Sequence to fold (445 residues):
Amino acid sequence: MKQVAVIILTAGRGTRMKSALPKVMHKLAGRPMINYLLDSVKALNPDRVIVIVGQDMEIVKTTVSPYETVVQIERLGTGHAVSTARASLANFNGTILILHGDTPLIGLNNLKAILDRSSDLAIVVLGFRSDNIGRYGRLLINSSGKLESIVEFNDATDEQRAINLCNSGVIAVDAIHLWKLIDKLSNNNSSGEFYLTDIISLAHKDGLICDFIEASRDELLGINSMAELAISENILQNRMRLSNMENGVMLIDPTSIYFSWDTQLGQNVIIGPNVVFGPGVSVGDNCKIEAFCHLEGASIASNSTIGPFARLRPNVIIGNDVCIGNFVEIKNSTIESGTKINHLTYIGDSQVGSKVNIGAGTITCNYNGLAKFLTKIDNGAFIGSNSSLIAPVKIGKGSIVGAGSVITKDVSAGSLAITRGEQKELSDWANHFFNIDKKSTKEDK
Ligand code: UD1
Ligand code: MG
Fold:
C-alpha cells in the first residue's frame, strides 16, 4: 500500500460568501463545514494531513488542530495553495490526496475509491454529473475515455460549458509527479490564478496517464455562496431525516424538521411538524416532541412529552414521564421524573424535583440584573398559577404555593405559602360605577 498524505485547501478568500467569517467555518446542521471533512479524513486514517489556511484564519487553525497547518500568505489560486505544503511534504513518497474545505460532504467511501483507483496512475480526479452544474471546472475526456484536461468555467467555451461532467476538486496525485507539475503552472488565464486543475493537461503532455471516477453530486457540491450553503444544508438535513426514519423515528412532516449534526433520538420517538433541534439534544425512547418546538442543549429521558410550542435552551435535563407544554421556556435546569409544566412558564437556573406540578404562568425570577440565582422546588410541590418565585428560593417537599403569589422566602415542606392580597367585596359597587340599578340588570336577564 502506498502512503497517503491529505492536503485540505481552506485559504481562499471566499469572496462569494460575502461574509467576514472564513468560508469553511460556516455551519451546516450546527457545526462548521470543515468538521465534516475532518471526520471523513480521520476515518481514512492517512499518514499525513496538512491544512492550508489563510493568514487571518486563527479560528480555522484552532478548529483543525491537532492537524498541521501551513499559511498561504498570498492567495494566488488552488495550485499555489498546494505548493505551500511542499516543504512539509518534501520527503513524502506516496499519494497526495487534495481536498477542498468548501466541499465537505464527501464520505469515506469516495475517498477510498479515488485512492484505490490512483494506485497505479499519475493523477485521478473525482468528478460528478449534474444537469445544473453552474461554475464548476469541466472534465475534458479524450477518445480513449481518459481525462485529458480540466477547463475552468471562466475560461471555457460555450461548447465546453455544455459538458455536464464536472470537477469536484478532489484530486489524487502521485507525489513523484506533483511538485514538478506544480512548478510548470502559469497564471495566464482569465482569473490570473495558478489553477491546480492545469496539472492534468501538463501531465498529459508529459505522457502521464490521468483518469477520473464519478461519484454522486450530493457528496461533491462545492459551497461558494450562501445559496450553495443552503443547498448543502438541505442535502444534509434530508440525509438525517432519512436515517432517523430508517431507525424508526416517526417524523410527521420530515421536510419541516431540522436536525443538528449530533441530534440523538431513541426508539419509538414521534416528532411533530416544524421542530428545530439545535446542537446537543438527546431524546429518549417513547418521547413525543409536538409541533413547533425549539430544542437546544437538552437531554430528555424516556416517555416524556414536549410542546407544542416549547423552547428548551442549553443545559436542560429532563427526566422520565415529564410533560412540558405550550409556551414553556426552560434553561439551565433539571426537571425530575413525573413533573408537569404544562403552560406559559419560564423555568431558569432551577432544580425541579419529581412529581411537581407547575401552574400556568409561573416564573422563576432568576436574574436581578447582575447575577443569576437558583430556585429549588422539591418533590411533589404544587406551584399555583401565576406565581413568581424570586430566586434564590427553595420550595419544600409536598408544599403548595397559592396561585398569584410572589414568593421571596423559602417555603417549608408540607406547608402552604400564599402572598396574594385578601379579597374584598363591595356589593353593588360595580352597578353604581356603571350607573345601572338592580332592576334594569334583572330585566336584562
Ligand atoms: C474549484 C476548481 C474547480 C472545481 C471546484 C469544485 C480550481 C482552479 N478550480 O473552483 O475546477 O469545479 O473547485 O468545487 O481549482 N483556495 C486556497 N487558496 C487559494 C484559492 C483557493 O486555499 O488561493 C481554497 C479555497 O479555500 C477552497 C478551495 O481552495 O476551499 C477551492 O477554491 P475556490 O475558490 O472555492 O474554487 P472554485 O471556484 O470553487
Ligand atoms: Mg469552491
